[in-house]
Design brief:
There is one protein chain. By secondary structure, this protein is of the alpha/beta class. It is built from 13 helices and 13 strands. A 6-stranded mixed beta sheet has the order 2-3-1-4-5-6, with helices on both faces. It has a 5-stranded mixed beta sheet with strand order 10-9-13-11-12. The longest helix is centred in the middle third of the chain and has 21 residues. The chain is flat and about 65 Å long. Bound molecules: guanosine-5'-diphosphate and magnesium ion. Keywords: Nucleotide-binding.
Length: about 400
């Protein structure tokens, strides 16, 4: 087994939108089903998971690593301190918050869709604040944050690029590498905005800002959790859904109720499901809370929390889940465990990439791979698909 490389999702949003509730719910899991450490790394960084259909559904028996065919693959989750307007200037927790986002590969923007908190997160009457404003504020803060990093020493940089005829995308990507911007991102942005790449010293400040805005949108993929859906006016949900984002109505609170009830042995609930089963003896009060959650599930299909995590990882980051095995016929490892591991890989990965992900030595000794479904040898350039069961053959 190689070291698990954890992909990260950050929860961002203003104070009181429900980030910590979402975080707590999403990182609270049934330890027994997990063959990886479901521990909280620190108060604000934890392990959550994406849910996929387990390939063992094609077998006669479940593999023992999943819950009735629902396979949970670990991802890191960061609860970023509440963000307010002008955070990039150091307001609120300011740059400490923004620095946390450096580590994240995608962002779930938790928005209080009920409109019951103002731009700073102070309680106001339900529906009295427009949640769309919060979306603008977060975008702006991230853009200005990148701008701040970019303009550090910009004049000197731009002049040097012009004098030495070096590539501007290289210099910008270097400057912004800490926030996850690549040369390809910069090249795309420059061409999209039609900036003269040989004359960066002549770029206007507003053009630099547009550049940062574009870079933000491509390097920090984001979706919106329209949280507090239980009390949100229809109109707010509708307007949020019209934005050019993936918008998932959520109730972090409902998810927390379900996960705690399951932990307490009161219900059986598989995260992401649209229902649960009472298996214990809840008190009158607990029963009423569960009934309320039940109604919500009926109305929305699920609490939305698992869907946010799934889409942030599988759609925004474009990752797939692949299952390496030692025995391609039985889908087991050397100890006979069925489908022992699940790896998240970037789309477009090859079997050799998977070998490296499992272990550097396996990657270096890679000879070929076998498809666990067909028993056929896979070509060097085979593109792995989500759900693939793969045997890797390497020199010993
Ligand atoms: N009605 C409702 N309230 C929620 C929901 N999620 C969180 N809250 C409440 O919103 C308040 C702020 O939540 P918290 O998670 O501390 O927000 P944070 O400041 O963004 O971390 C708390 O009172 C939560 O109980 C939800 O889905 N529905
Ligand atoms: Mg919080």
């Amino acid at each position: 087994m190689g070291v698990l490389r954890i992909r990260e999702v950050a929860l961002a949003g203003k104070p009181n939108c429900g980030k910590s509730t979402f975080f707590k719910a999403a990182t609270l899991a049934n330890v027994e089903i997990a063959n990886y450490p479901f521990t909280t790394i620190d108060a604000n960084i934890g392990i959550s998971s994406v849910r996929v259909d387990c390939p063992c559904l094609e077998l006669d028996e479940r593999c023992g690593q999943c819950r009735e065919g629902a396979r949970f693959v670990p991802v890191g989750l960061i609860d970023v301190a509440g963000l307010v307007h002008d955070a990039h200037k150091g307001r609120g927790l300011g740059n400490a918050f923004l620095d946390r986002l450096r580590e994240a590969s995608s962002i779930v923007h938790v928005v209080d869709a009920s409109g019951s908190t103002d731009a700073e997160g102070n309680p106001v009457g339900v529906g009295s604040h427009d949640p769309l404003e919060d979306v603008d504020i977060l975008e702006r803060e991230l853009t200005y944050w990148m701008m701040q990093i970019l303009v550090r020493g910009w004049d000197r940089l731009a002049r040097r690029v012009q004098a030495e005829h070096t590539k501007i995308e290289h210099v910008i990507a270097e400057q912004l590498s800490g926030v996850g911007v690549s040369q390809a991102h910069v090249r795309a942005a420059i061409s999209e905005l039609g900036l003269p790449s040989d004359k960066p010293a002549a770029w206007h400040e507003h053009e630099l800002l547009d550049l940062c805005d574009y870079l933000r949108s491509v390097s920090k993929p984001m979706l919106i959790a329209a949280n507090k859906m239980d009390t949100a006016p229809e109109e707010n949900l509708k307007r949020l859904k019209e934005l050019h984002y993936t918008v998932v109505p959520t109730s972090a609170e409902a998810e927390l109720v379900l996960r705690m009830a399951e932990r307490a042995g009161l219900i059986e609930y598989v995260p992401g499901d649209g229902d649960f089963r009472i298996t214990g003896t809840p008190t009158e009060k607990q029963l009423r809370a569960l009934e309320r959650v039940g109604e919500l599930l009926e109305r929305f299909g699920s609490t939305g929390v698992q869907e946010c995590l799934n889409r942030a990882v599988l759609e925004l980051l474009g990752l797939i889940v692949v299952y390496p095995v030692e025995d391609e016929a039985k889908w087991t490892d050397k100890d006979g465990r069925v489908l022992p591991d699940a790896f998240l890989m970037p789309r477009g990965s090859t079997p050799r990439d998977l070998a490296y992900e499992v272990h550097t030595e396996l990657g270096e000794g890679f000879l070929y791979a076998v498809d666990g479904r067909t028993g056929r040898r896979l070509g060097e350039s085979y593109e792995l698909k989500s759900g693939d069961v793969i045997k890797i053959v390497a020199v010993k």
